[in-house]
Write a structure and sequence with these properties.
By secondary structure, the protein is mostly helical. It has a domain at 83-273. Helices cover 78% and strands 1% of the residues. The protein has ten helices and two strands. Strands 1-2 form a two-stranded antiparallel ribbon. The chain is globular, with a radius of gyration of 20 Å. The mean pLDDT is 85.
Amino acid sequence: MTTESSVLSNGMKQPLAVHSFLIYIIVFAGYIVLSLLSDYVSQKPVMQLIWLITPSMGLILLPVLIFTYLKGFNLKETFHIKIPRFKVYLVSIMIIVSGLIIIGAINGLLTPLFKPYESPLKNLEIQLLSLADYNIWWLLLGTTLIPAICEELLFRGFILRGFMNSVGRTQAIIITALLFGSMHFLIPRIFITALIVILFGILLILTDSIIIPITGHFINNLAAMLILLKSRGVNPDSADMTVFPFYIIVIAAGFFTIGIYWLIRNKQTSAIANHNAFA
């Protein structure tokens, strides 16, 4: 490892923690500027939809790709670009779904604590629902797939890689989750969001593929949007969409445990096979 970057055995360069912090500050500053300018956006729905997509494409994906190119970092290794085996992908989806159910149950328990801070979140939901009336498909694209790709390439790709090369995997997952949570200014979302992305970080470590957290991020965002759309016309005080029957939580915990165990064993087996191949 050098002071400028982490150098692989084959001479390819990767980022360090200092690069992760720098790109995070750049993106965070962009979000602050964008939030200050949001009041000046045209009230036309089409302009609001474009404004919704702009942060992901312009403030996340573009800066990190340009920075990676200018620093000469290896694209594949930096962003964990790897196609997972089909069985690994299916097990990962099982873990994602069961994990989100468990985290959703935790969110349901914590909801009373977040009541005083719900006003900004409710305002955001009202804005999204108004855009859904204009064009639901563009809304879903701008709130599910595009953020999933861009945010995961930044956080579970570039930023996580930089911290992994500097402080180790466990610390890197936690730090990255805290940074990701801090970008979600709405207080009710910060803790739960951190739990979700810790799960995504663990899955990336176990699968070595950015495709897994992108899939998980997409599933989470899509579920949240579908629940929000389903709640139209429903009294929020009479229906809590994050409450699950106890037996569902128990089943989810079982699938989650089995899935994580399988991925750990699979990674250990793959490591042994690779070691023997190069021995």
